[in-house]
Amino acid sequence: MESQESQNAATAGAVAKPRLAPRSVEGAAKPWLIAIVVVAVVALALGSSFTSRYNNLVQLREAVKSNWSEVDVNIQRRADLIPNLVATVKGFAKQERTVIGEVTAARAALGGARSPQDTMAANNQLDGALSHLLMIVENYPDLKSNRNFLALQDELTGTENRIAISRRQYNLSIQAYDAAIQTFPNNIVAHFAAMPYNNAYFRTNPANRAAPPTVKF
After folding, report:
1. What is the 3-state secondary structure (H, E, C) of 31-95?
2. In the structure, what pLDDT confidence band is assigned to residue 216 with cuts at 50, 70 and 90?
3. Between 20 and 30 A from 71 (CA), which of 37, 126, 132, 204?
4. 86: nearest Cα among 106, 70, 72, 67
5. How many angstroms from the chain centroid is the CA of residue 54?
6. Tens digits of per-residue pLDDT, 100-156?
């Protein structure tokens, strides 16, 4: 009898023992939500990097344009001196029509330039014409000693120096831009931003480098 009562009590205790509730999953992060957050963070990082690199490339490209403007101003400054130079030379050496014509034609080509490449070509042509003219001047002592001619020669020399300095800065800015767009991942940014390689370096004529225009007294 006692055994039966004990068994009943044990059964009752077992029935009375509460069952454990299943673990709630409502507070756990859903895998798809985590994936969305990760993708958003990565996209934000990539977008920020793209924007930063794009802005840097734009600055380098604008530096090229700015430096070219400085070159163009100096070239134009020299071109503005040519009419007075030609008029002065004509006063002493009218017979040198060929050389004078070369200088005049080179200046006209410079005035008709519509692109940096055209301007560079015309400037090199003018370099050669002026170099030839200065060689001819050696045959005219009165012209060499003329005060107006000497003043023009001095201005030309100063302008030549400014052209050389600005040309060097322009070439360096192109070099910096080209180097930047060829490095990874800038090359990817440059591709999508349509920023091509720039090969418009200002190269002088080899003959002019060998015998640059000089002023002799």
Report:
1. HHHHHHHHHHHHHHHHHHHHHHHHHHHHHHHHHHHHHHHHHHHHHHHHHHHHHHHHHHHHHHCCC
2. very low
3. 132
4. 106
5. 13
6. 999 999 999 999 999 999 999 999 999 999 999 989 988 999 998 999 999 999 999
Three-class DSSP labels, 138-187: CCCHHHHCCHHHHHHHHHHHHHHHHHHHHHHHHHHHHHHHHHHHCCCCHH
Tell me the backbone φ, ψ of residue 61, rounded to 5 degrees: -65, -40
CA pair distance 29, 35, nearest whole angstrom = 10
The torsion angles phi and psi of 26, rounded to 5 degrees, stand at -65, -30
- The CATH number assigned to the domain with range 31-210 reads 1.20.1440.20
